[in-house]
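Question (not urgent): is this output format expected?
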Amino acid sequence: MREEATREALSVARAPTGNPRGPVRAGRVADRPAVLETPGSAGRGKGPGFENGMERKQGMTTGQHLAGSMKVRKFQTMLHAKAKEEPDRRFHALADKVWRMDFLNEAWAGVHRNGGSAGTDGERFTDIEAHGAERWLGELSRDLREGTCAPKPVRQALIPKKQPGKLRPLSIPCIRDRVAQTSAMLVLEPIFEADLQPEQYAYRPERSAKDAAGRVHSLLNTGYNEVVDCDLSNYFGEIPHAEPVKSVARRVSDGRMLGLAIGGFAIGVGLMMARRSSAPDLPRDRNAGM
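Got this back:
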């Protein structure tokens, strides 16, 4: 079983897709392993003995001599393959990846690339760079590992919607919390990606609202003549926080990782997973909520 998962992870062939859901069944979109679009900064590997026993039990180990970003991708690919192979599997030994330096470097690269303003602590990207990004990430890693890093209150802002005169509430976490959340997402996303149907586009890597619209257009050209367009009002503002945690716990048995979710660091990931399972086909930009 382990050998088959490794072959699947390292091959260029896509993981097998599930059966399509809903009335639209013409054609399929292949599932893809969950990866970031661009590599982040190389992190610091743990040396030849870093592979722990829990990883060995799960049949998932990262390469000992790969650059940091490549280690992240190999681990993500193996997670995705294992989750695809065993739909009922609950994963353990995940939390330590959140504070591992290669994952944090990858998360920092993504958050820095997205930019954005400071949170309630006032800390900006320039402040972090002046302090030293590697030093800053090392301190974050230590605090996550020791359980002393608690998320700070988010800064509330209102941004204009497409409809004239309407505003959308936006919560802006501190950069430190955004990096921790992104690192948690790097660990969890490959697991939940394996459960998604080809028709699902929302908040998925390498997919966007334009891809969903293009799929609708191609189906219309093959004879379908009805399109249902709907939206969920204030979804992220009203969903009970217990539901995203349950959604994560369905696939994750690592108590420390669930503790991070309950504490708030991975709540954005949990909200995303809950949204995926309840709204399969909404063509929304996956970057809109992060």
